[in-house]
Specification:
The complex is a heterodimer of chains A (about 200) and B (about 200).
Chain A lengths: L2 H12 L2 H20 L5 H21 L6 H5 L4 H16 L1 H12 L4 H4 L4 H16 L7 H23 L5 H26 L5
Chain B lengths: L13 E9 L1 E2 L2 E2 L4 E6 L3 E6 L2 H11 L7 E6 L2 E2 L4 H6 L1 E4 L8 H15 L3 H18 L4 H11 L5 E4 L6 H8 L4 E7 L1 H14 L2
Parallel strand pairs in B: 5-10, 8-9, 9-10
Antiparallel strand pairs in B: 1-4, 1-6, 2-3, 6-7
Helix pairs in contact in B: 3-4, 4-5
The chains are: A mainly alpha (about 200), B alpha/beta (about 200).
Amino acid sequence: MNGTRATLAIVRREMDAPWLGRLGAAAFAGLGLGLLSSPGGALENHLLAATAALWFAVGGALRVDVRDGMYFAAPLYGRQLARAHALVALAGAFALPAGAVLGWAARGAPGNELGPGGFAWALFCAAAVAALVALSATPRGGGARTGYALLATGAGALTALPALAGWHDGTAASACTALVIGFFGLRAFGETLARFDPIG
Amino acid sequence: MLRAQRPRPYAESAVLRVVGARFVRDGRDLAAPFSLELGAGQRARLEQPDACGAMVAARLAAAIVKPTFGAVTVGDFDSRLQPAQAKRLVGFVPHCGFSGSEREFAREIGFRADVWNVERAAMQRDATEILRALRHAGSCPDGYARALALALAPGVALAVLELAPEGAVDALAALRPEVAVVATAVAADRFAAVAGALAESAP
């Protein structure tokens, strides 16, 4: 089995026209946020951008169709499926932060947003964590699904918190948090898929 | 010198071996337990008391779900331990068939070629040939024929037909006599019982 070929095939299958439409909508929303951000209110801008990024990241990840019976009939491992779906979810989650960065750059934003320790990096990290944790909700239903969606939002907020609070090296702290939570989130998703029995 | 050898209770050439497979959810068997051994080119019809049982039995045989008790082996691969290798040998045909457009069908062939890691052009050719033959025979609905073509095109050793329509198994056997076939169905007496109950309850 060729893992890369299979992974790319799943990614192409998931990135269909509706997905691209949602990606465009998120990018435009981010661009609007960046362009319309108030010049003096860094915290308000960051809070708004983080809330919107988490909303789009979790919402986009929940739309990933992991229950497609074809995936479970195909010669794929759970971890292969998890990686492919994670790529799709991450690409979707990065659309809004990328749009916001473009907006901030177009407005000539100061270094606290786009500089080496700027908030933009923390925004990307928070969106990534929220998307990866939210993926574990996709094979589930009912209360468990809602619980995972809330957990994903909380994990994303926790990741953005050091940068939002303006801590010294807050962006580095966000990146470290994202690495740890993202790794375990992806691993948990892979194990969920490996154990998942698609019936009905 | 005497050397210990692992006993081999089954035929070496079995494509599918199912030993007391059960699938239990919430303490209830979703499919009637079954055992089965199929060699290349052999066919089996698995009757279950209801549609849910037929779907679960098909998924057990296709290594899509893992048995709660018992074992399912496709080729030399245990469905619990080596599911990806086992599924590589299996073509699963869902009861709903393939309902997409011709364009989506072509895209699906490309997707399966990538996942099964076979040459795209060869798979496209095989799927088209199988579909043409099935349409010519006219033995099963078009959606099911397309799903059958998709399932067989990667060159599988075992085809699992979930709630197969009349004539699908014979058409498949005529096309690919070397492929082992498992078809699941709802037991005929069960149909009769349900029909009888409906007739009695009718005003």
